[in-house]
Design goal:
The chain is an all-beta fold and 127 residues long. 0% of the residues lie in helices and 63% in strands. It contains no helices and 11 strands.
Length: 127
């Protein structure tokens, strides 16, 4: 299973971007999904997360500006980013608890939980 993130780029202060992250592989279901970011010389921080039941949480720094959502049919999580600030400049990583199918027969299906990470997409906000 793997995650592929896209949608990063260069945007001016106050602008908007939408990040997408698609999960692929032998997937039974997906649990929590989220977006993290890491700026140079800083640790990776949680930006937003969403449960399989669509319960969301956000870091205080993005609350009211960013919106996380998911499409369970498309195995995709989105991050809508508005009113972008220079301090939002970072590499954004998607993360998901993917329930990977390990095997199946006529009466049962075996799956295991995989903590998957995408490779990151760069968001640069210029002033």
């Amino acid at each position: 299973v793997q995650l592929q993130a896209s949608g990063g780029g260069l945007v001016q202060v106050g602008g908007s971007l939408r990040l997408s992250c698609v999960a692929s592989g032998r997937i039974f279901s997906i649990g929590d999904m989220g977006w993290y970011r890491q700026a140079p010389e800083r640790g990776r921080e949680l930006v937003a997360a969403i449960t399989s039941g669509d319960v969301t949480k956000y870091s205080d720094s993005v609350k009211g500006r960013f919106t996380i959502s998911r499409d369970n049919v498309k195995n995709t999580v989105y991050l809508e980013m508005n009113s972008l600030k220079p301090e939002d400049t970072s590499v954004y990583y998607c993360n998901a608890d993917i329930h990977r199918i390990d095997g199946e027969d006529d009466v049962s299906l075996r799956w295991s939980s995989v903590d998957a990470w995408g490779k990151g997409t760069l968001v640069t906000v210029s002033s």
